[in-house]
Design a protein that fits this description.
The complex is a heterodimer. Chain A has 14 helices and two strands, in the order H-H-H-H-H-H-E-H-H-H-H-E-H-H-H-H. Chain A is mainly alpha-helical. A two-stranded antiparallel ribbon of chain A has the order 1-2. The longest helix of chain A has 26 residues. In chain A, 45% of the residues are buried. Chain B is an alpha/beta fold. In chain B, 35% of the residues lie in helices and 25% in strands. Chain B has ten helices and ten strands. The longest helix of chain B has 17 residues. Chain B is globular. In chain B, 50% of the residues are buried. Classes of the chains: A mainly alpha, B alpha/beta. At the A-B interface, helix 8 and helix 9 of A face helix 2, helix 3, helix 4, helix 5 and helix 6 of B.
């Protein structure tokens, strides 16, 4: 298995340090927002694996978040189960749902898959309102606010912050382990050239379904942490706009790298707030203009743009130059070397 | 030489068009077999049937006696059959090394042991890339590489399967005269070094006649001739249908 390089470990260490220190240096209302950033980042990570790495476009991940959020809420509200049991069960429930949807998705691709998954997101609020004996219907359900364990010198909010980010760290690590090596290559091979991938033994049914399942697991966990901070869920918590927000976050952050999930989470949580401050009368216009500008100037997302800027600053390309790679011994030549 | 691959009465129809009509031939183990014919003869269609990308209407494809038509496409590489494509089909957003490693996919052990095999797979991939003059660009993305290097990457990926049967689809397409000459030596060296049998679709007659042990000629989806190069070269039907213009 490939080992992470020193630069990556340094960046991870810096990120962990910043995340650990933030609750002590920012106002408490921002800590609340940062819990949502963790939730968004986990869900967007799932989309990056599914869409960025495997090429399956989902506009329905808000539905998996809703399932996760409601599993946590129903277990806590109706059975009194603690959140630490509810969140893993939410992950399992969403994962199973994701596998089932993934099986259906095998027959769809591109915009057809996007539309099919979007129908899930559209139907979810109505579904939640309909089964009111379980979900509380239109009124939703109230939950118990999180309290830090006895003896831990943290507020409930700070405790939830650290738990959410610790879980985010674990799922980022697990996902990185999952996609390094054979599994990740198979996902990307299917995205780049399905016929060639299949010809080299990559089973599209297994890998595409597994990608859907794992991304739904992450959305389920994210849904749990989306419901817990406000101690309340309702159908309006998980509207169809949430699914689009997740895809926007993945694209803006950078859909080809896990760092894009982190940046995307920050953007989708704070960009609407910033837009509100810039123009309170029409924040959606500011939001839209910001999206257009990012897509125009940073087509690879913010992380992709930063990486390109870094390479330009270092005046070195990300890969060895072609000329310098020519071996001194006469290579075996199978095709012309001059034609692009 | 025993037949490694046997194609028997292979027929495939696309609507009202019969692309292959009762085609039969053998590929002897250890040989380089040329599969030639004019455009539209059904050569690539034949490759696609062997690798199961197409479902033939009728017929048999036996590899070491096993009927490949009972397999799904993703099982073919596991039988140590690898191919290149007429239009180079790389994973463009992956590096050259990663492209080669996809060729190793079916050789990874199952489950968590696959992680442990990554180092050995990478070492082998680098060795294959080195043999093809690609080691220096192992970490470059495949997209943007010159056409010839892309063909080499595709060949490296196929060799990572450790194929018993290597299917080359027009490897000389777009090459200069000198490059075609080098290609012939390369294919012979690969067949020897990797102990692989080669079935090659090719339009370059000089190359096919020089390196093939056996040649199968298709025309309009039918087997026109089948034999050693000299016999095929002298076959009046082949001369009339295909080689007469050379």
């Amino acid at each position: 298995m490939p080992r992470p390089n020193a630069g990556l470990l340094t960046r991870v260490a810096i990120a962990v340090a910043v995340i650990a220190l933030l609750p002590w240096v920012v106002p408490s209302f921002l800590v609340f927002d940062l819990i949502y950033v963790a939730s968004y980042a986990i869900a967007i990570l799932g989309l990056i694996i599914l869409t960025g790495m495997n090429g399956q476009i989902s506009l329905g991940h808000g539905a998996f978040m809703a399932l996760g959020g409601y599993v946590v809420a129903v277990l806590a509200h109706s059975a009194g189960w603690p959140y630490w049991i509810g969140v893993p069960l939410a992950a399992i429930a969403s994962g199973v749902a994701g596998l089932l949807i993934g099986l259906v998705a095998l027959r769809l691709a591109g915009v057809y898959l996007a539309l099919a998954t979007f129908s899930l997101a559209v139907a979810t609020p109505s579904f939640l309102k309909h089964y009111k004996s379980i979900t509380g219907g239109f009124d939703g359900m109230s939950l118990q606010p999180v309290q830090a364990p006895a003896g831990v010198p943290l507020s409930g909010q700070q405790w939830l912050y650290y738990v959410a980010w610790a879980v985010a760290g674990v799922v980022f690590l697990l996902s990185a382990l999952l996609v390094r090596g054979q599994f990740g290559r198979a996902l990307r091979a299917l995205r780049d050239n399905p016929i060639a991938a299949v010809s080299f033994g990559v089973n599209p049914y297994f890998y595409k379904t597994a990608a859907f399942g794992w991304s739904a697991v992450l959305a389920g966990i994210a849904g749990g942490f989306y419901a817990i901070p406000t101690a309340y869920v309702s159908p309006d918590t998980f509207t169809s706009a949430l699914s689009i927000t997740l895809l926007i976050g993945a694209v803006l952050g950078g859909i080809s790298t896990f760092w894009g999930a982190l940046v995307g989470g920050i953007v989708v949580e704070f960009l609407p707030l910033v837009a509100q401050q810039i123009n309170a009368a029409a924040p959606s216009v500011v939001y839209g203009v910001a999206l257009i500008l990012v897509m125009m100037f940073l087509p690879d997302g913010i992380v992709g743009g930063l990486l390109r800027l870094t390479y330009r600053f270092r005046r070195a390309p990300p890969q060895p130059a072609l000329e310098s790679s020519t071996p001194s011994a006469a290579p075996v030549t199978v095709g012309p070397q001059s034609r692009e | 030489m025993p037949a490694l691959l046997t194609v028997r009465n292979l027929t495939i129809r696309f609507g009202g068009i019969t692309a292959l009509n009762d085609v039969s031939f053998d590929v002897a183990e250890g040989h380089i077999t040329g599969l030639i014919g004019p455009n539209g003869a059904g050569k690539t269609t034949c490759f696609n049937c062997i690798t199961r990308l197409y479902q033939p209407t009728s017929g048999e494809v036996l590899f070491k006696g096993e009927d490949l038509l009972r397999c799904v496409p993703q099982q073919i590489a596991g039988k140590r059959i690898a191919r290149t494509f007429q239009n180079v089909a790389l994973f463009d957003h992956m590096s050259v090394l990663e492209n080669a490693l996809v060729g190793y996919h079916t050789r990874f052990p199952g489950g968590l042991a696959a992680w442990g095999a990554e180092t050995a797979a990478t070492r082998e991939a680098m060795d294959v890339l080195d043999r093809l003059g690609l080691a220096g660009i192992a970490n470059r993305p495949a997209h943007g590489l010159p056409f010839g290097l892309r063909k080499n990457v595709e060949l490296a990926r196929a060799l990572m399967v450790r194929p018993e049967l290597l299917l080359l689809d027009e490897p000389a397409a777009g090459l200069s005269h000198d490059e075609v000459s080098a290609l012939g030596d390369t294919i012979k060296r690969i067949a020897r070094d990797f102990s692989t049998t080669v079935l090659m679709v090719e339009h370059h007659m000089a190359l096919v006649m020089r390196i093939s042990d056996h040649i199968v000629v298709l025309a309009s989806g039918k087997t026109l001739a089948d034999g050693p190069p000299d016999a095929v070269r002298a076959n009046p039907a082949v001369i009339e249908a295909y080689l007469g213009a050379v």
